[in-house]
Amino acid sequence: MQADDTRRFPEALLRECVEARLAEAGASPGSRAAAGRAMLHASLVGVDSHGVRLAEHYCRMLGGGRLKRDPLLSVEHRGAGSAMVDGDDGLGHFAAYKAVEVGIALARTAGVGAVGVRRSSHLGAAGAYALAGAEQGFVTFATTNTDSMVALFDGAQKFHGTNPLAFAAPLPGERPWLLDMATSSIPLNRVMLHRSLDKTLPEGGAATPDGEPTTDPYAADMLLPLGGVDYGYKGAALAGVATLFSALLTGTTLDSDFIPMYGGDDISTPRNMGHFVLVIDPDKFAGRAAFGAAIARYVQSLRGSVPRAGGRVMAPGDREWAEMDERRATGIPVDPDTVRFLGL
């Protein structure tokens, strides 16, 4: 199948179909709404690897028992500005959005809300949670570590996960400033998507089992860190930042100790994933008005920076919001495998 085999569908229809499949798999109303919200965010901003195509995987894990269908989230406050959320082995989106809510409540009083998540599962697009905080007026950071699939710089062994780092901040009169980046050159789900589409991978994104770079999605066995062959030491170190916050501070699972997300016969054992959310209230620092004026001036200056010939300077989030507008107008592209699963 080629990339042009994708078909486009309205946001509302996809949300309805995703939630219907999750409901059929037994997911509780709260957990399936959270998962649908996060997946649709990813699909709308063009992160298709973490969008609605993951619905089938989540349904399989719900059916196998790895994910609890009706998790009971709990919160343990550990300090004036810190807490832990227990995800009860449910869908990770449910626990992550809860962590943002808890972080906001803490930040309103303490200025900063630092929230760890334990006993969770796959997070999806980390930017969905950073955005949720920014939309409420808070500077927000969200991260997770994942199972080993990325080589170290000059390495020929899977070590870190794709370990995303996401930051968002409110921008007066506009949609938030938003950065959502994997610390690998590409996410594993991009490889899976390109296999579905029979599409070549970008250069410097993946490697064969012996660590040699490849653009063949079928030959790819591991990913390369952000920066690729020449500058991957930067991405490899940043991946460790996600592990520090998400696994070490929360007491959960190291990248190398995870049950793999894909492959293997065990779909009943929970993965005990950790996440981390940091929420900051601008009112408790320079003040919300001062911060708003400063970030507006900063972004205006950034966008006004002189581009190179044929180039365009954009602020973090500009590409995502343009993509969202385009997809809301023309429909969200969906790969053939997901079209079949959703019954479209």
UniProtKB/TrEMBL annotation:
SUPFAM superfamilies: L-sulfolactate dehydrogenase-like. It comes from the Bacteria. Pfam families: Ldh_2 (PF02615). Keywords: Oxidoreductase. The keyword Coiled coil does not apply. The keyword Oxidoreductase applies. One of its GO terms (molecular function) is oxidoreductase activity. InterPro entries: Mal/L-sulf/L-lact_DH-like_ah, Mal/L-sulf/L-lact_DH-like_NADP, Mal/L-sulfo/L-lacto_DH-like_sf, Malate/L-lactate_DH-like. Belongs to the LDH2/MDH2 oxidoreductase family. This is Malate/lactate/ureidoglycolate dehydrogenase, LDH2 family. The lineage of its organism: Bacteria, Pseudomonadati, Pseudomonadota, Alphaproteobacteria, Hyphomicrobiales.
